[in-house]
Amino acid sequence: MSDKQDFDLIIIGAGSGGVRLARMSAAKGARVAVVESRYLGGTCVNVGCVPKKLFVYGSHAGEDIEDAAGYGWNVPDGQVTFDWTRLVANKNAEIERLNGIYGRMLENAGVTVIEGTASLADDHTVVVGDRSFTSKHITVATGSWPVVPEVPGKECVLTSNEMFYLPQLPRQAVVWGGGYIAVEFAGILAGLGVETTLLYRGELFLRGFDDDVREFTAAEMRKKGINLRFEVNIESIESEDAHYAVELTDGSRLNTGLVMAATGRRALVDGLGLEQLGVQMSASGHVVVDDQFQTAVPSITALGDVIGTPQLTPVALAQGMVLSRRLFGDGKGEMDYSSIPTAVFCQPNIGTVGLTEAEAREAGHKLRIYRSEFKPMKHTLSGRDERALMKLIVDDESDRVLGAHMVGPDAGEITQGIAVAIKAGATKAQFDSTMGIHPTSAEEFVTMRNPVA
């Protein structure tokens, strides 16, 4: 291999982690290229968190219009209409704007963008079409892709990728899955007037979240008309005159206009040729790396969804910064995956950070549990039957707050601030001594005085 490579770093994948790594590394003087086969910004910007949140806003607007009547606004019956194609078009325009921003950020940073599908000829050579590029370092940041189980009629199923570009809304829809993507899309569809059924094979959806949160969310979703069916799976799907007949494992049958699978995601490594070069893959199909994102091949690193860490944009961003310091900076810095805050943009929202009650008990903590359930102030006049839940998990010996969980309006916004306190090791006494902002839902986190367990 020649000492004169084309680049110091080639990144395969222009998602959140790849773009952050590219910009940070270029700022340190490295010659950087990014190879992308689809779209700048990756899943999050194009078919993930950004367009999904826009759809959540759109689907919730109908409730806001209804609630306005309680505040004196006249909302004539039958005169409020919804245009799905306009929402999709406006979303598309925003995504295109963001794509342009990502492109300009890379260009301004001096990063070379190479369009096309990449494969590895050897541990220092990336092939894109009929071109080859050499680099001292190669980082795989190709993200993940939806998985649909092998059932008869699988070809009839849509994934989250296609849902963002539906030409029209169906009258009925089946959402298949029990993770945050399934729960969010069930809320989006129901909020837009679609008769929605969510199917999940387990006893209760949102596995890994606090049990109180899971149960409370199920009850609130049912209030909104979503048909939740647990301990059932899809046996087969048949197309019938632009509709679908869905046979279930309990012997029942659903007729619907759409079947969406949110049944998991896999690492997107097809065609890269990683294993042939000696890169190890886990049993789940993820790229195996050490704490410094190093694969078994010295010149190849990987980050983001492709390595199986929490599939969250801020995680990939943080990984990009740590890896950039390792490759081109002072070599310091490491990832801390404890107390990662996250939100589920179902309706009402979920916000959570730290340990669940079950996790804390399993870890051996003696606990105090604080729990509050109430009607948000907005709905005292709107009349809507929606409630909020807040919960704190406290270690009884140290008084440290181990986890905070919320279901309610703006839960994600509220939890971000609580996450700082928990990351800093705040105690329940410090929560109690913090003045609340009145009147807000958030103040409940600093006014819960009596443990329920």
TrEMBL record:
Q: What GO terms in the biological process aspect are recorded for it?
A: cell redox homeostasis; cellular response to oxidative stress; glutathione metabolic process
Record-linked SUPFAM superfamilies = FAD/NAD(P)-binding domain, FAD/NAD-linked reductases, dimerisation (C-terminal) domain
EC top class named in words: oxidoreductase
Q: How is its cofactor bound, per UniProt?
A: Binds 1 FAD per subunit.
Q: Which UniProt keywords apply?
A: Disulfide bond, FAD, Flavoprotein, NAD, Nucleotide-binding, Oxidoreductase, Redox-active center
Active-site feature positions:
H438 (proton acceptor)
Q: Which GO terms describe its cellular component?
A: cytosol
E.C. designation(s): 1.8.1.7
Every Pyridine nucleotide-disulphide oxidoreductase dimerisation domain range? 340-448
Q: Which cofactor(s) are needed, names only? A: FAD
Q: Give the Gene Ontology MF terms in alphabetical order.
A: flavin adenine dinucleotide binding; glutathione-disulfide reductase (NADPH) activity
Residues bound to FAD: K53, T142, G143, S144
Determine if Acyltransferase is one of this entry's keywords: no
**Designated name of the protein:** Glutathione-disulfide reductase
User: What's the family?
Assistant: Belongs to the class-I pyridine nucleotide-disulfide oxidoreductase family.
Q: Which residues form the FAD/NAD(P)-binding domain?
A: 7-320
The taxonomy runs:
Bacteria, Pseudomonadati, Pseudomonadota, Gammaproteobacteria, Pseudomonadales
Disulfide-bond pairs as recorded = C44-C49
* Binding locations of NAD(+): G177, G178, G179, Y180, I181, A182, V183, E184, G264, D305
